[in-house]
Every structure is written in C-alpha cells, then in structure tokens.
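Duplicate of #3305? Posting structure anyway:
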C-alpha cells in the first residue's frame, strides 16, 4: 500500500502545469481552425474561374499537352488534345462549331462547378462536324419567333446554367495525327449567335 502511495505522489502534477497544458491545447486548436479557414483563399473558387485564366471568353483556347504534375485541369486524359471555351449565357446564346478528324472526339458542356451538363462524341453525332446552339429556355422562346435558317442543322442544348465552359477533346493515337488534330482544335469556334 505504501508503494502505491509513493507512486501516486511521484505522479502528482502541479495545477499550474495542467493549466499551461490546457492553454497550449486551446492555442493550438485556434491556430488549426484559422489555417483551415484560410485555405479557400488560396485555391481557385470554381473550375469556371480557373478556366478564365486560359484566355478570352467565347473563344476556344488550346490547352498544352498533359504532362505529369503540370495538368492545366484535373482528370484530363494525356492521350487526348484539348481545347476549352468559357462562356456566359447572360451575353446571349452561344454557337459551338467543331470539326474533329480523329478516331475519337468528344465535346462536353460543364457548369460552373465543373459538372457535365451535356456531352456528345463521335459515336453519338453524325459525322466529324458539330454545330451546337447553347441557350436558356427564355432565349429559346425568343429565338422561336425568328429562328436562324440553319437551326435544324444544329444540336440545340437548352440549359438553366448561365455560366459554364465547353471542353473539346480529340484522341491522338500517334504523333502523325497531331498536326491535323491541333489544326482542328484551333479552328473550333465558340461564338455569339449572329443577329438576324
């Protein structure tokens, strides 16, 4: 019994040290919370904002080839070549035109958060040329009063997402395809609907 009392006396910690320990934990907790809350200030707020750094809106911008640790956007396939166009439908409807002489190509529309809102590829489209009209339901109702002549030749995509971006990708099976695929991506357009 005496041995147990001696051991308990040896373990005794002064209340002053306990207060210092609790104070240290509180300060560490406050610093941790402050760091966690400040992280969003250093990260792009949305994929839409990040795409804005590639160039002007309503114009396709070629992305560099995908290399390890230097991806311009996450989850891009290194065997593909990419062009991207940021847009806002607040400025009116958008026409996307693209030609892809590739064994595989795809064209996707993404919202501000980077979620796919519409997608098609060479298997779901007729031929290598695509003309797509992207607009809001309100813009479509106005357009129906005086439609453009080639409306029936376009894929009409009606969306409530006012801001987003189009990503055009083409598969490059070998370096021999690169010149024609790069030329096709550069010739893709993402522009205003011509006024009637």
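Output from current build:
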């Amino acid at each position: 019994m005496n041995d147990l009392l001696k051991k308990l006396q040896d373990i005794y910690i002064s209340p002053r040290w306990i207060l210092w320990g609790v104070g240290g934990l509180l300060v560490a907790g406050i610093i941790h919370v402050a760091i966690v809350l400040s992280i969003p200030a250093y990260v792009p707020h949305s994929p839409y904002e990040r795409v804005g750094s590639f160039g002007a809106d309503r114009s396709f911008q070629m992305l560099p080839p995908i290399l390890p640790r230097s991806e311009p956007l996450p989850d891009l396939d290194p065997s593909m070549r990419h062009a991207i166009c940021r847009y806002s439908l607040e400025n009116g409807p958008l026409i996307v035109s693209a030609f892809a002489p590739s064994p595989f190509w795809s064209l996707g529309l993404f919202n501000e958060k980077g979620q796919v809102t519409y997608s098609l590829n060479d298997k779901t489209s007729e031929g290598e040329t695509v003309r797509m009209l992207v607009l809001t339901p309100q813009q479509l109702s106005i357009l129906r009063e005086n439609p453009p002549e080639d409306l029936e030749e376009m894929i009409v995509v009606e969306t409530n997402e006012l801001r987003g971006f189009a990503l055009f990708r083409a598969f490059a099976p070998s370096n021999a395809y690169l010149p024609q695929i790069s030329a096709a991506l550069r010739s893709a357009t993402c522009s205003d609907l011509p006024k009637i």
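Confirmed duplicate; merging threads. The helical segments are 2-11, 15-38, 47-51, 137-145, 178-187. The longest helix spans residues 15-38.
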